[in-house]
Write a structure and sequence with these properties.
about 325 residues, eight-stranded mixed sheet, 6 helices, globular
């Protein structure tokens, strides 16, 4: 009887200990809970939430102007703060990818900047040195390429800045036709409006549909979770630089439409993650039929149909209706 009582008491103690441990896990801050969602970008692991080591103000490099990318690279390589700042930074690679972006960030008076990367589908916060602080999975415009007009459902690409931070808890969504939704919370608790020429409707905000993250599904805005937007706004201030970086398919669409939007690497020293080069597609009124005729191109127009054939063997008769 005594042994049974001891065993019973031991079971009760274990039950309470395990319950407390589970409660502690459930109540842990989001940053302390291990996130198993990683994304590989050409062998570079980008976790959903990262935090760089802090850099004290007295070790930050000076802000100064550089005439060339080579001058900026020499400064970053020889600066005494390299080990504390530029080592592991994306700024040296950015100077090689697109120097004007790096120049603006090296002269920025802000301590942080954001990169919205359409390829990795992440909103990334970097410190002034260009070291990754946070990376959150996002959703963005459902259509590829940069924004050109209202209702094209694209996320603008380029170098922008934060216009303001707003409480969007009670905001109602209005579509491109002016139809208002009566459901609150679609923008989450905060809205970081971006200063973008030609539009005032694009920003980074929370969402009532966290399962949409990782997909191209918005009208043009950038979504992250409500918890993450509340964390992010604590580190964001008006005027802070924001780069919206095109993905591979965005770059292809932009080049086909005659736009060359700058592209940067979102990780340091990733030589294999290079900006792709695309050959523009033939015009829509040109049909390549190499599978039928060797090196034959059929050009279709409203007025007539021209057939250009290069060295077809044996001779063939073409019938076009």
């Amino acid at each position: 009887m005594k042994n049974s009582l001891i065993i019973f008491n031991a079971v009760i103690i274990l039950f309470f200990v395990s319950s407390c441990f589970k409660s502690a896990q459930d109540s842990a801050p989001a940053d302390e809970v291990a996130d198993t969602i990683d994304l590989t970008v050409d062998s570079v692991q980008i976790a959903d939430t990262l935090l760089a080591d802090s850099v004290s103000a007295d070790t930050l490099p000076p802000r100064q102007y550089f005439a060339t990318a080579q001058a900026a690279l020499r400064f970053m390589a020889n600066d005494s703060t390299w080990a504390h700042c530029y080592e592991g930074s994306i700024l040296p690679q950015m100077a090689r990818d697109h120097f004007p972006y790096a120049q603006r960030l090296l002269n920025s008076r802000y301590d942080r900047f954001i990169v919205v990367d359409k390829y990795s589908m992440r909103v990334m916060l970097f410190d002034r040195c260009g070291r990754l602080m946070r990376a959150h999975k996002m959703a963005c415009g459902r259509n590829y390429g940069t924004k050109h007009e209202k209702a094209d459902e694209r996320t603008p690409e380029g170098f922008f800045s934060v216009e303001g931070i707003y409480d969007s808890t009670d905001w109602l969504f209005v579509d491109d036709n002016g139809v208002k939704s009566e459901i609150k919370g679609q923008f989450g608790p905060r809205f970081i409006r971006l200063r973008i020429p030609g539009t005032t409707q694009i920003g980074i905000h929370g969402t009532c549909s966290p399962r949409s993250l990782g997909w191209r599904c918005s009208h043009g805005c950038i979504r992250i979770t409500n918890e993450q937007i509340l964390q992010l706004v604590e580190l964001v201030e008006p005027g802070m630089p924001v780069i919206v970086n095109p993905g591979r398919r965005d770059t292809q669409v932009n080049l086909e439409e005659g736009y060359d939007i700058p592209w940067i690497s979102v990780a340091p020293d990733t030589a294999r993650y290079r900006r792709p080069k695309f050959t523009p597609k033939p015009p829509k009124d040109t049909i390549v039929v190499d599978s039928v005729l060797r090196n034959a191109v059929v050009v279709d127009s409203v007025a007539k149909i021209n057939v250009k054939v290069d060295t077809i063997k044996p001779p063939m008769n073409l019938m076009i209706e």
